[in-house]
Amino acid sequence: MRGRCRRAAPSFNEALRYGRELADEAIVGWSLHDLGHVALQSGGLRAAAGYFRESLALRRRGGSGIDVAAGLTGLAGVALREGTVTDSAWLFGAADASLAAAHGVLGPADEAVRKADLAALRDRLGEDALAAGIAAGAAASVEKVDRMLRSIAASPPIAASAI
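Predicted structure:
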């Protein structure tokens, strides 16, 4: 969040290694998520998508709705930067639905990125189109969300040492 994401990557990679050694899916999920943000801020969209997708798969198995929403917002950020702004709005809507179901909010770092991405989407789409995309994503079934995720994150996950 302070613009030093590349300096954070070794720590996230170390946490990922320990999480895997301990078979702790929560540590692995958060480490992958954080590496996704490092890649996203560094412009590595394929790597970011891979990290977020792998993290989201773990979080869907055992994480909270808040964790799932964090993964969806990460992938919405990838879609925004890829230029698929309608898909991005849609994924933000799916994340909002997950947060509402969990009666929760994103952590401060994820929320800051979300707010900035939504502002960028508002500038590109306009208020009405953004609201329509968010509403469509919020109303989507899990199967439809999965299809959308495959279109955004079509590349295989990148090894944690790639960053």
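Summary: The mean pLDDT is 89.
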